Amino acid sequence: MKTFTTRRAIREYLCAQGSATIGFVPTMGALHNGHLSLIAQAKQANDITVCSIFVNPTQFNDAKDLKKYPRPIEADMAKLELAGCDILFNPAVNEMYDGNEQWHLDVGRLEYLLEGEFRPGHYQGVMQVVFKLLDIVKPTNLYMGQKDYQQIMVVNKMIELLNIPVNIVMCPIEREADGLAMSSRNVHLTAEDRQHALVLSKTLNWVKDNFDRLNIAELQQQAMDKLAAEEGVEPEYFRIVDGKMLLHASENTQIIVALTAARVGKTRLLDNVLIR
C-alpha cells in the first residue's frame, strides 16, 4: 500500500495511472469491519482502491467530541494493508484547509432534518471535506456506508448540484453478531452501555416487522417509548421517512427508511433500517 500525505503527491500519482478506474472510501479512521467491507466492494469493481483517513474538524460542532475522536493510525494502516487497499491518503489539517475558508452549499431541507436538528452545521462540514477529497482523488466510484444514511443523501445532493462526475455506492450496514451497528464510536461504550445499545437495532427490527400492522405515527411513538425505557439510553429521534428527501412517509411511499439517534451513556449512536 502506498501512503500519501499531500494533495499534490497523490494527485500526481493518480494522474499517472491513465484510465484506471478508482474506487474511493473516505473515512475518519478508527477503522472497523464496516469500513473494510467498503474497501472490499471498491476492490471488486475498480482497478485502484483509495482510502482516506482524515478527522475533519469542520463537521464537529462540539470541540470535546473532536478532541476525543479515536485516532489509532498505526492499527488502521495495518488493517488497510490486510484488506488489500492500494492507496492511503492521510493528510494533516493544514494540508486540507487554507486559513479561514468559507463554504456553504444550499441542499434544502435535507441539511436541517434529523441529524441537522441536533448537529447544526454538521453537513456543511461534511460536504466541504467530501468536495475537497473528490477533487483530489477524482474517483470513478465513491463508497459510503448505509449507517450514515442522511449523510449519503446530502453528499448525493451535492454531487448532483455541482455536477461532480462520480457514482455513489451505498453499502449495507455491517453489524456485530448481536445486531449492534459497527461504529468507530463503539469503543467509548462501557460493557453495560454495550448491552443497553442493543435496543437501537432491536427497536428498528421491531418496527420493520410490524410495519404492516400499525400506522406510522403509532410505530414512531412506540419505538421512542421502547428506547426511552431502556436504562442509560436517551433517544433523540426515531423517524420513519421517505428514503429520498427524508420527509414524513406514508403507507404509500415507495422507499421507506426508519432512522434513529440516541445517547447511550456518554456516546451518541446512529442506526437505521430500510423498511421498503
Give a description of the structure:
The chain is built from eleven helices and nine strands. The radius of gyration is 19 Å and the shape is globular. It has about 280 residues and is of the alpha/beta class. Helices cover about 40% and strands about 20% of the residues. It starts with a strand and ends with a strand. The protein has two domains: about 1-170, HUPs (Rossmann fold, 3-Layer(aba) Sandwich); about 185-270, Pantoate--beta-alanine Ligase, Chain: A,domain 2, CATH 3.30.1300.10. A six-stranded parallel beta sheet has the order 1-4-3-2-5-6, with helices on both faces. The protein has a three-stranded antiparallel beta sheet with strand order 7-8-9.
Keywords for this structure?
six-stranded parallel beta sheet, 9 strands, three-stranded antiparallel beta sheet, alpha/beta, Rossmann fold, Pantoate--beta-alanine Ligase, Chain: A,domain 2, 2 domains, 276 residues
End-to-end separation in angstroms reads: 39 Å
User: CATH topology of the largest domain, what is it called?
Assistant: Rossmann fold
Total separate domains: 2
Average pLDDT number: 96
Strand order of the largest sheet: 1-4-3-2-5-6
Low-confidence stretches: none
> What's the total number of strands?
9
CATH superfamily of the largest domain: HUPs
CATH architecture of the largest domain: 3-Layer(aba) Sandwich
Rg calc: 19 Å
What percentage of residues falls in helices of 4 or more residues?
A: 25-40%
Largest sheet: 6 strands, parallel
| CATH class category of the largest domain | Alpha Beta
What is the number of helical segments per DSSP (H or I, 4+ residues)? 11
* Assembly context of the chains: single chain
Order of helices and strands: EHEHEHHEHHHEHEHHHEEE
Structural class: alpha/beta
**C-alpha geometry:** globular
Q: Quote the beta fraction.
A: 15-25%
